[in-house]
Amino acid sequence: MRLRWAALCAAVAGLLTLLIIPATASADDRVDLWVLVINDGQPWSAAIAGRLTAEGVRHTSVNPYAADRQRITREFLQNGDSWAKFQAVIVPSDPIPGLSAEEITELRTFERRFGIREVAAYSWPGSELGFDGFEYIGSLDGITAQLTDTAKAQGFGYLQGKVAFEDNDPAVSETYGYLTRTLPGFQPFLTGIKGDANGVLAGTYQHDGREQLLFAFAYNGSQHQFQLLAHGIISWVTKGVHLGFSRNYYSVQVDGRDAEYPRWSSADNCTPGPGSVDCPNLPALPPIKASAEDQFYSRSWVDRNRIRLDEGTAGADRHRITVFYNVGTKQEMADEYNWIYTSRANGGSGICEDNPATTTCIDPIDVTTGYDEYIVPRERAAQLRRVLGNDPRAHNLDGSALAEGRIGYGPLEAVIRQYREEFVPDLVSLDQPEIDRVRRHQADSAAAEDQLVAYVQGGRLVVPKQDIPFAITVPEGSRYVGAGPVGQPFGEQYAGERSLRAISQAPLTVSLPQP
Questions:
Q1: Per-residue pLDDT band at 502 (split at 50, 70, 90)
Q2: Is 5 left (phi over 0), alpha (psi -120 to 50) or beta?
Q3: Which of 100, 329, 103, 136 is nearest to 217 (CA)?
Q4: Burial class (CB in 10 A: 0-12, 13-18, 19+), 283
Q5: Helix (H) or strand (E) holding 54
C-alpha cells in the first residue's frame, strides 16, 4: 500500500509539471484544444491517431501523400498572431515525410511561437535529434523496458514503471528498434536492456526552441507496449489538457449462472444428449451446474478482486471470453479447443482448414497443461487490449465457467494480476446501466466534437456556454473559476488527472496549475 501511494503521489506531481509555458509563448495567447496529426499510414502514426480517437481527443489528420490534402500554412495553423488552432502536433518521424521544406518551416515556426509540443512517432536515432549512436539494433521482442523518473514526472506517472514488449511468436520479429546513447539535453523516458546492450528507447529533446518526444522503436496500435504508453503520449504532448475522458474499464457478466449445461465428450468430439446438433443419438454425460459452494466462492471472489460479476444482460454488446459453455474442467476445454483449432491431420475437425479467412490452425496443445499455458495467456492479452482501449463494454462468459473446475476465473485473474503489476490507478468496474451511459456519451460527444469551442488562455481552460455533450481532462490541481463550485477541484479524479463528462454546461472556466 505504501509503494502504491508513493507511486500515485509521483503521478500527481508529474502531471502538475506538464503545463510549463515556454518562453516564446505569451500568457494572452489562445490555444484551441485540437491536435494536428501528420499521418502517413505507417503503423506507429496510425497507432497514435487511433488512440486519440479512442480517448475522444479532437484531432485533424493530414495524409502528407494525398494529392488533395490540406497544405500546412500559417493560416491553417493559426488565426492572426496570438491564436493557435492546434495545441499539439504528431508526426510520423523527424524528418517529416511528404511535407515540403516550406511546410516544415511553417510548422516549426508555429511550434516555437506558441510553445507547441511535438511527438515524432518513430525516428532514426540521429545526432540532430539528440541521439549519440546506438548500442544495439534489431528485434526488441520480449524485453522489459523501464520508465525513468523523468517520464513519470511528465505524463507517464499512471504506470508502475515496467513496460513489457510483446513476444508472441519466437520465429517472428515483432518489434524492431534501437537501444541508443544520447547527447546532453536529451531526457530519457524509456530505457531497455538486450543481452549486454543497455540504452535509451524514447525520450524528449529540447532544441531549436522546440520540444519533441522521440521514439527509437517501431510499434502498432495493438501491441501491449504501445497500449501502456499511449495515454502518456497524449498527456505529454497536450501538457495534460485535452478533450476526452479515459478510464481502464473491466466488468464481467455471467450468463445463466443457475443453468444446467451439457458436457463435451472427449471420446466422441461432440456434445451428446437431447437437442445435440452433432451427436443427438448418444447419451448425455453428467451436466455442469453451479453448486452452493460455487455461488459462495463467486461472491467472495468479487469482494477480493473488486471486479463485478453481474448477471448477464440479454442482447447487450459484450466481449466474449474464450471459455466454452460445455466444459467443466481445464482438460475438457483444451480437448475441445484442439478439436476446433487443429487440422484433420492433427486429429482436429479441420474447421480451421475450411475457414482460413477467420480461423488459424494451431499445433495441438497439451490437454493437461494447455489451458493454463496457451489459452489463458492469449485470452488475457485479448482482454487487456480492450481494457486499455477505453472500452467500457463488459466481458461475458457462461455460468458453467464458474462451476465445477471454476476454470473461468483463470483468464480473469490473469488480467487483474498483470494490470495491477503495471498500473497505478485501479480498474473501473461498471454495471450495465453505467456502461450504457458511458457509451452513449462517448458517441454523442464524438458526433458533436467539431462544434465544440474549447481553449486555453491566460492559464485557464475556457469552454463557452454550449448545449453540446463533451468530455475534458486536465491535470490534478485544476479548479473551477467563475461557474460551478468555485474554488473546488474540477471534475473527477483518476490517475493523477481530473476529468469531466457533461451534456450541457454553463460557461466553464477552470484555473490550471502553474509551475
A1: confident
A2: alpha
A3: 136
A4: exposed
A5: helix 43-55
